[in-house]
TrEMBL record:
Pathway: Cell wall biogenesis; cell wall polysaccharide biosynthesis. Coiled coil: none annotated. Pfam families: Glycos_transf_2 (PF00535). Keywords: Glycosyltransferase, Transferase. This is Glycosyltransferase 2-like domain-containing protein. GO terms for molecular function: glycosyltransferase activity. The keyword NAD does not apply. Belongs to the glycosyltransferase 2 family. Residues 6-178 form the Glycosyltransferase 2-like domain.
Length: 304
């Protein structure tokens, strides 16, 4: 498998070094690594110089003039990757994703066995070995694209997925040429979901369950699942934009209003929102309003 890799980074220099080395030390190594630095301010470039990785012949380092978010980062990364003609597949991952050394060997073996498949992904695990199941999902209602995480019980064998994240996915060049670049103006959230729906028009997506990528991120705390922050704006807005783009259901707009009304009622009366009701209503209102207006891009009211 001739492949190159894209990594998008922002202010996680130590994890980035580990992520880069996990690619360079693959049993089937990449042709090159395109590293998109989303205008980091933590000394990422200096760290790369100190470790010698900045001058590594396989690493193409590109510093963005501003933070374009994950969606903008992957847009520019794939755009840069497509300038090269010597690869057959492209992998995508964040700076906190660490590939096990046999990841691409296993993906390559599966691809050789199933040449008709043009997109693959691996198993995303937390550092303690627990599977992070929300990275691989299935569409269970296509009218408004309701989705469910694929349960850990299915990971004892390879399986087909509908929706993947940009953590450890591998896509063929010919698919990329057909579907174009991701939605750069989502900033964060749902750019990978939307891209998956485009991939599925041309190929199945297979999760190679023994190919493991360690996601060095804190485990989700169920007690904090309703804590409101700036990211919820993009979650609301982009989920609506994605559904609007791909669904042809004539009642979709009505569904949006119904969903938003139920959400507001839940915020007002559910005790989990106590102490943050005003912030929740404000954040989701702006996400809902901007989605209806098809307003994309970074909103300076909601930034890191």
């Amino acid at each position: 498998m001739n492949y190159q890799s894209v990594i998008v980074t922002y202010n996680r220099k130590d994890k980035l070094i580990e992520a880069l080395n996990s690619l360079l030390n693959q049993k089937v190594p990449p042709i090159r690594i395109i590293l998109i630095d989303n205008h980091s301010t933590d000394g990422t470039e200096k760290k790369l110089k100190e470790t010698g990785l900045l001058k590594h012949p396989k690493i193409v380092y590109i510093q963005m003039p501003q933070n374009y978010g994950g969606s903008g980062g992957f847009y520019h990364g794939i755009e840069e990757a497509m300038k090269y003609t010597d690869f057959d597949f492209l992998s995508l991952s964040d700076d906190d994703a660490i590939y096990k050394s046999n990841f691409f060997k296993l993906i390559s073996d599966c691809q050789k066995t199933h040449p008709e498949i043009k997109a693959f992904c691996g198993t995303v695990e937390y550092e303690d070995g627990t599977i992070q199941i929300d990275h691989r999902r299935r569409v269970v209602e296509s009218r408004w694209y309701r989705q469910e995480d694929i349960p850990a019980s299915e990971y004892n064998q390879n399986f087909e997925v509908d929706l993947l994240s940009f953590v450890g996915c591998v896509i063929s060049r010919d698919i990329l040429e057909r579907i174009g670049l991701p939605e750069k103006d989502y900033f964060i959230y749902y750019d990978d979901t939307e891209y998956s729906l485009r991939i599925r028009k041309y190929s199945k997506i297979i999760n190679v369950s023994d190919a493991i990528i360690i996601h060095k991120t804190p485990k989700k705390d169920p007690a904090k699942q309703n804590v409101i922050n700036w990211k919820n704006y993009y979650e609301m807005r982009n989920s609506m934009l994605m559904k609007e783009k791909h669904s042809d259901w004539k009642w979709l707009k009505l569904y949006f209003y119904q969903y938003y009304l139920k959400l507001c009622i839940r915020i007002l009366f559910n005790k989990v929102y106590k102490g943050q009701r005003r912030q929740a209503l404000y954040t989701y209102y702006h996400g809902f309003k901007d989605a209806l207006r098809n307003k994309k891009g970074r909103n300076d009211l909601f930034t890191p």
